[in-house]
Amino acid sequence: MAFEIARETSTFRYGMSNPEQLQEWLKENPHAIGLSFVGRSNVGKSSTINSLFGNKIAKTSKTPGRTREINIFSFKIKSDGKILEEIPEFFFYDLPGYGHAEVSKEMSKNWEALMSTFFGSISLHTLMVNIQDARHPNQKSDQEFHHFLKGFNFETFLLFNKIDKLKTQKERSALNKLKPILSKEFKWVRQIYFTSAEKKNGIDQVEEAIISYLLRQRDLLESM
Predict the structure, then answer these.
(1) Looking at domain 3-223, which CATH architecture does it have?
(2) Cys staple from 19: which of 53, 72, 113, 191, with CB 3.0 to 4.6 Å?
(3) Which of 197, 111, 217 has the alpha carbon at shortest distance from 155?
(4) What is the pLDDT of residues 89-102, one digit of tens each?
């Protein structure tokens, strides 16, 4: 049976910049199954989301670091072209980019409160998808984010996006050598993928892995 994301069902639900508002939604949905997209500004997060869930569903900001809210979407999956109505909807969360210095102290403080609320209260049936630029992997802010994740228990995928921008074999070799190092250092990272949202490289494999995770979590909840 071939499963895929039913892109036509991808729907924007809420945009939340208020930690209290977010906390209330999370309390109302304690067993929500889904995934979160997070990464530095300009790593192709929105393009990756659009490749997976439908063209233009994730909006981009012309000013890096200016998107300071969590956008919540719902979607369903289908099999052999038919939407599986018997399976409850899943969610995905588009998180604001981290590691951008050119924001006000007030904006930065609210971002920290929003993130603390999200990671502290979101259902553990949530996959973290960390997107990094293949040309500039494992930056300081990426490392800080993963050390932050260490305090939780979220299964995580790491996507090195913009792989098509690597022009030399030396660059590709360096990235390949980094893969086992990060797998050892960040044990919560279960899968590492090389992708290009622009060229659609690797997106099918990521979609397959995401669906596998979602169905596994659904089965886990039903068995409890």
Answers:
(1) 3-Layer(aba) Sandwich (3.40)
(2) 113
(3) 217
(4) 999 999 998 876 55
E-strand ranges in the chain read 3-16, 34-39, 70-79, 82-83, 90-94, 126-133, 156-161, 189-194
pTM, 2 dp: 0.93
Give me the residue spans of the domains in the chain. Answer: 3-223
Confidence of residue 53 (pLDDT cuts 50, 70, 90): very high
> Which region, left, alpha or beta, applies to residue 94 given φ > 0 means left and ψ of -120 to 50 means alpha?
beta
